[in-house]
């Protein structure tokens, strides 16, 4: 009778492991911390997901926790936008790739881990971008755009006064 209980317990444990686990879920994770820096520091950052929703805002240097999955069998992707007065706005993509541990389900997680657990939790994806470090470029005035400059007649050089046209 004791042998029966030992076998039953072993079978129950194996079934539980196969049912409630996925290999990438065991070894990997469903969200990742992404360090974000800029040169110069103090840039405002906005992270948006693939649907355009803001998922994080902050000021560099900072870090954000990003989910790896975007739905069943869908990997997440994000964009980090850097904004700082006097500098050009920069946008950097953040990508996720297939986690190699996902294929460990063939041995450890079984079909339930392969087809349900890891795709549902997002653990089948891993962060491809380890960190974001962006060097911001100072804004440069565009010389090709026409500009309008107002001048005072009294401070105008005498050499330019003959070219003036009176407007009534």
From TrEMBL:
The chain crosses the membrane at residues 100-117. Keywords: Membrane, Transmembrane, Transmembrane helix. This is PEGA domain-containing protein. It comes from Adhaeribacter swui.
């Amino acid at each position: 009778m004791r042998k029966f209980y030992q076998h039953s317990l072993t079978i129950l444990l194996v079934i539980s492991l196969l049912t409630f686990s996925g290999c990438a879920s065991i070894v990997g994770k469903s969200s990742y911390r992404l360090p974000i820096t800029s040169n110069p520091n103090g840039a405002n950052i906005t992270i948006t997901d693939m649907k355009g929703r803001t998922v994080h805002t902050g000021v560099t240097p900072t870090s954000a926790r990003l989910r790896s999955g975007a739905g069943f069998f869908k990997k997440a992707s994000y964009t980090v936008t850097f904004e700082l007065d006097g500098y050009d706005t920069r946008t950097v993509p953040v990508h996720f790739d297939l986690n190699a541990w996902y294929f460990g389900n063939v041995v450890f997680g079984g079909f339930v881990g392969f087809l349900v657990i890891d795709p549902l939790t997002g653990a089948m994806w891993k962060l491809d971008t380890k960190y974001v470090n962006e060097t911001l470029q100072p804004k440069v005035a565009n010389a090709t755009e026409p500009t309008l400059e107002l001048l005072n007649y009294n401070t105008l050089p005498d050499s330019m006064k003959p070219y003036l046209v009176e407007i009534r």
